[in-house]
UniProtKB/TrEMBL annotation:
Region (Domain I, interacts with DnaA modulators): 1-111
Domain remark in the UniProt entry: Domain I is involved in oligomerization and binding regulators, domain II is flexibile and of varying length in different bacteria, domain III forms the AAA+ region, while domain IV binds dsDNA.
Domain Chromosomal replication initiator DnaA C-terminal residue range list: 378-447
InterPro entries: AAA+_ATPase (IPR003593), Chromosome_initiator_DnaA (IPR001957), Chromosome_initiator_DnaA-like (IPR020591), Chromosome_initiator_DnaA_CS (IPR018312), DnaA_C (IPR013159), DnaA_dom (IPR013317), DnaA_N_dom (IPR024633), DnaA_N_sf (IPR038454)
Official protein name in the record: Chromosomal replication initiator protein DnaA
Signal peptide coordinates: none
Length: 470
């Protein structure tokens, strides 16, 4: 059925928006789609208005097809969706008289404009939300604080409470991959908005900054790009290292940076390197980046990894035994993203097969991840470390000497070779002066017995193992 009246069209448009909102989720909808208004239906075209070219292009490329499908489901006659730029959508008074206007302005509106009253009501949204949607789960509540990140966290909190305060502008967060820089930035953005919904916060990666700048150059519309960014209260640029060697974009960023700081606006930047290590970033920009607060996020400790896992496991719908969390915290030491990925995989597997998570199932499901994280230790390294530790000569690892002060460390080294490498017993035997595999077997069980019986000795071996593994 073609839309019969303005009321019916408005209701149909509201349903289309509602479905789109369900499909893309609240955050995305509010960020990109909330400002759509319907101009009307012109022949086979539904005409939608958005206030900027950027929004129009974005919605066209990301949601154009979806909008068309939803329109066709509601009104099969509509074949296309056209999005136009209109900075000021017509006020309600004009909307009411749209039928006449359609004839007068020559746009040939087959249908009147939708009355605004029929559109879903939304909370007001900061203007600059066009930039990049924030991740809903990246808040301060879900950020686990520990020694390695407590300083960065405290700085981010401080900035969220008092943006642009002296000494904290810019806030420069740096640290290795997957350690929570983006999480902290989003958390800061959410908190700033919660404190003061009128503040506009723009978050984007340095890569997006560059692509948008290039797009603006191409379309000869750098004014809009500059104005939009310079109108924000808080600008966050993630992964700044991407700008290394991109001189023109750096230059543009430098000007944006200065314009904002001069106006007393807050800048937050993240990078995998400190400002002084950002070789390939112009000196004047590096200097400015380092003149506020520089906070690094260090590699995770076992305690932090375990706390993060505990927090994440508490929200999972299956029970994750503490031993399994300890196993993951012990083995997956690279970064939080991988840790989280491993836990998610375990939980998904348990949900899918309806089986509880156990140490065995964790080993089975995550065997590839755990193996990849196993530090490859060679028999030579073990022999060297053990010889150093017991103060014997390295050659004694393969010599025929049987004195206790030499034989016992050799047995320890064989034991560790069995525990820490994939080598077979005969192979280990060969590497210890061509000894038989039964000698290695005997050494392994003898050391295990001694460790049971003597806590001091067990500690000694555990220490050696730790030194070799880290
Ligand atoms: N302290 C933490 N508490 C809870 N989750 C964390 C913490 N640190 C990191 N994460 C989680 O780890 C994942 C990776 O974090 P994030 O994307 O913020 O890292 P990043 O440092 O920005 O990485 P990259 O260098 O790749 O951009 C996210 O899912 C994040 O929620």
């Amino acid at each position: 059925m073609p839309p019969q009246s303005s009321g019916e069209l408005a209701a149909g448009w509201a349903r289309i928006r509602g479905r789109l909102r369900e499909e893309v989720g609240e955050v995305e909808y509010r960020t990109w789609l909330r400002q759509m208004t319907l101009a009307g239906v012109e022949g086979e075209d539904a005409v939608i208005l958005l206030p900027t070219r950027f929004l129009r292009d974005w919605v066209n490329s990301h949601y154009g097809d979806r909008l068309r499908v939803l329109w066709q489901a509601e009104y099969p006659e509509v074949r296309r969706v056209e999005i136009r730029v209109s900075a000021t959508p017509p006020p309600e008074a004009v909307l009411a008289g749209a039928e006449e206007r359609a004839g007068v302005d020559g746009r040939g509106l087959a249908e009147p404009l939708a009355p605004r009253a029929a559109e879903p009501r939304m909370a007001p949204e900061p203007r600059s939300d066009w930039v990049v949607p924030l991740e809903a789960r990246f808040t301060f509540d879900t950020f686990v604080v520990g020694k390695p990140n407590e300083f960065a966290h405290a700085c981010a909190r401080r900035v969220s409470e008092k943006p642009a305060s002296p000494g904290f502008n810019p806030l420069f967060l740096y640290g290795g991959v997957g350690l929570g820089k983006t999480h902290l930035m989003h958390a800061t953005a959410w908190a700033i908005r919660a404190h003061d919904p009128q503040r506009t916060v723009a978050y984007m990666s340095a890569e997006k900054f560059m692509y948008r700048f290039i797009a603006a150059l191409r379309s000869q519309n750098t004014m809009e790009f500059k104005e939009t960014l310079r109108a924000v209260d808080v600008l966050m640029i993630d992964d700044l290292q991407f700008l290394i060697g991109k001189d023109n974009t750096q230059e543009e960023f430098f000007h944006t940076f200065n314009a904002l700081v001069d106006q007393g606006k807050q800048i937050i930047v993240s990078s995998d390197k400190s400002p002084s290590d950002l070789a390939g970033i112009e000196d004047r920009l590096r200097t400015r980046l380092g003149c506020g607060m520089v906070a690094d996020i260090h590699a995770t400790t076992y305690e932090l990894r375990l706390s993060i896992l505990q927090a994440k496991a508490a929200t999972a719908q299956v029970v994750v035994p503490p031993k399994v969390l300890e196993l993951l915290a012990n083995k997956i030491t690279t970064n939080v993203r991988e840790l989280e990925g491993a836990l998610n995989r375990l939980v998904a597997h348990a949900n899918l097969f309806g089986r509880p998570i156990t140490i065995d199932s964790a080993h089975e499901v995550l065997h590839d991840v755990l193996r990849a994280h196993e530090k490859r230790v060679s028999i030579e390294e073990i022999q060297k470390k053990v010889a150093e530790h017991y103060n014997i000569r390295l050659t004694d690892m393969s010599s025929a000497r049987r004195a206790r002060n030499v034989a016992r460390p050799r047995q320890v080294a064989m034991y560790l070779a069995k525990q820490l490498t994939q080598r077979s017993l005969p192979e280990i035997g060969r590497r210890f002066g061509n000894r038989d595999h039964t000698t290695v077997m005997h050494a392994v069980s003898r050391i295990a017995e001694l460790m049971e019986a003597d806590a001091g000795f067990a500690e000694d071996v555990a220490l050696l193992r730790k030194m070799l593994e880290t």
